[in-house]
Amino acid sequence: MKTIVIKNYGGPEVLQLAETSIPSIADPSQVLVKVRATSINPLDFQIRRGDYAALFDLPVITGHDVAGDIIAVGEAVKNWKTGDKVYYSPRFGGSGSYTEYHLTDESSLSRMPDNISYEKAAAIPLIGGTVWEMLMVRAQLKKGDSILILGGAGGVGTLAIQVSKALGAFVYTTGQSILHKKLKKLGADVVIDHHKENWIEKIQIYTKGKGVNVIIDTVGGATLSDSPLALADYGSVVTLVDIPKPQNLINAWEKNATYHFVFTRQSRDELHHITELIETGKVKPVIDSIYSLENIQKAHQRIEDSKREKPLFGKIVLSV
Ligand SMILES: NC(=O)c1ccc[n+]([C@@H]2O[C@H](COP(=O)([O-])OP(=O)(O)OC[C@H]3O[C@@H](n4cnc5c(N)ncnc54)[C@H](OP(=O)(O)O)[C@@H]3O)[C@@H](O)[C@H]2O)c1
């Protein structure tokens, strides 16, 4: 089978197409899945360049989303059968999804939504679990709350806008001017151009100095320190971005702010809520572009290129 293998850490050129053998079921609770589509997450290029080198042994197969068909089940598997369409996020640290066949434990599987393609389904598992964890488990977002999603055009942002809207929140987000129409179509009430405007000042103006109830940080940098300046009293900041530098959170006290730090684990229970929203038409996966497995290097170049001509909007998917 075709697999993308990383033998050395580095740039996109270390992603090499290789012929590997199809794995076989070794444990009774395992299933073998024919991968029909997968996607690119920043976690993949972080692993590729060696950010997690202490946790992996080379060679590495990365990839954190699968949409596909079950083609074999272990003898203890009760709830799944050959032919079932599934989607899931492979376990962090295990063998990834940039391949034609993926072996996993049945406990990681979710039924694929029945109204979308494999490509659209592959855009969801990792960010789906993440977004539900951020909005509901941590921030406990409710109808009538106001939320600011920093990085609205990214994979996480495009989904977080739709889910926040479905939950009844008033949604502010940041994104380049050229994407404002698209971001509003997803459900953003107000879009701030982070390339031209200061989001703290804009939120102060829009909310008449009150601030927003929740801030979702998918960007990093100074966001953690600055967020309380745009936050309402007793508001929450939820961040996905680990910054290996000391952060000054002094402004958080004045707002009685709560901080949540999220590192997604396999999250089948959270993903189930996103499946429901997709099947009721409240949420639609947003695809930036689709590449073949063979063109993996180009796909990684696109997600990492900060000077890309056409801005990123949603997820980059690999058709397998
Ligand atoms: N901790 C976890 O469990 C977890 C889970 C998922 C993701 N993450 C992390 O979350 C981050 C976002 O993930 P993603 O999948 O959404 O990435 P992505 O698809 O690459 O999107 C990033 C978005 O952020 C925007 N952006 C960059 N700098 C910005 C700034 N200064 N202000 C506002 N927007 C800015 C980009 O827009 P431009 O076109 O303007 O650059 C782009 O639209 C990544 O760092 C990822 O590693 C963490």
Assembly status: single chain
Q: Give the CA-CA distance, first to last residue.
A: 11 Å
Task: Output the helix-strand order.
Answer: EEEHEEEEHHEHEHEHEHEHEHEHE
* Mean of pLDDT: 96
The outline comes out as globular
Helical element count?
10
Radius of gyration: 20 Å
Protein name: Zinc-binding dehydrogenase
Domain Enoyl reductase (ER): 10-318
Subcellular location: Cytoplasm
Pfam family, one: ADH_N
Question: How would you portray this structure in words?
Answer:
Pfam families: ADH_N, ADH_zinc_N_2. Strands 3, 4, 5, 6, 7, 14 and 15 form a seven-stranded mixed sheet that branches. A six-stranded parallel sheet has the order 10-9-8-11-12-13, sandwiched between helices. Strands 1-2 form a two-stranded antiparallel sheet. It has helices spanning 42-48, 118-122, 125-138, 155-166, 180-186, 199-206, 223-226, 251-254, 268-279, 296-304, and strands spanning 2-6, 15-19, 30-39, 66-73, 85-88, 101-105, 110-111, 146-150, 170-174, 190-192, 212-217, 231-239, 258-261, 287-292, 315-319. Helix 3 (125-138) crosses helix 9. It contains ten helices and 15 strands. Helix 10 (296-304) links the parallel strand 14 and strand 15. The chain starts with a strand and ends with a strand. With 320 residues, it is an alpha/beta fold. Helices cover 26% and strands 26% of the residues. The site of NADP nicotinamide-adenine-dinucleotide phosphate (NAP) has 25 residues, from helix 1, helix 3 and helix 4.
